[in-house]
Amino acid sequence: RRSSVRNSSRPRNGAADGKDESTKKKKQEDVSELDLLIKRELVAQALLLVRPAPHHKAARLTRAWIRKEKSTELVPLDDYGCWALPGRPTRAECARHDAPDRCPALEPIDFEDLAAPEVVEFAKAHVWLYRWWAKSCGQGRDSIGQAQVLRMLEKCYLVGGDSGLFPDRVAAQLWLARIWRDLANGNFGLNMPQFIDLAGKIGALLLGTEQSEPSEDGFHQQRTHNVSGILEFFKILKSSVE
User: CA within 20 to 30 Å of 163's CA: 66, 154, 180, 207, which one?
Assistant: First the structure.
């Protein structure tokens, strides 16, 4: 009985395999040669532009590369493409500049000219906030805690005084405790996207577009970034740091 069941199942498996092979052939036939030719040329032009190092050299330099401690940048270059870390770069860290003269089919894109000013401003603010967040997290950590955020509010002169956003330290702690439950999702600290959410809420408070007391029913629905609030918070934090 066992052998008959096994033998009866073989034709079904073969039929399924034949069907899969026919489907694969059909999918392969759907791709036109012109499409493949265009994609192949685009890849070739892109490689001519970036002129990557040979594979053996890249592998050797990768093994020799040691990430700098206390570095928040995966690519340690500033906004102008200059070396951003102290000391001269090693051979493994030297940047290979693009060669646009080798790929006439590609044209340079001026993002500063083509992008809307609001988009450029938000992008620069987002990068600056990321760098501040990464430094504040500390070595080996990927989140920022309530105590660090509270010190940040005090450093920005948002706690106490006539121009403070919160009348005293206790009021700031209570506000952070209320919104932390939703922002941190039960975790100890805030990751980068959660910190951006917090920046937008603090900026909205500064602009007077959000209540200082989060509502219990509608708070979870307001998850979109407040661009104007993020930009306002960025200006306040940057001015206090610099």
Answer: 180
User: What tens digit of pLDDT does each residue of 27-52 get?
Assistant: 556 778 888 898 998 888 888 888 88
Residue 166, phi then psi, degrees to nearest 5: -120, 140
Query: In degrees rounded to 5, what are phi and psi of residue 83?
Result: -65, 130
Statement: the pTM of the whole predicted model exceeds 0.70:
no
pLDDT for 5 equals 46
pLDDT tens digits, residue range 133-143? 988 887 778 88
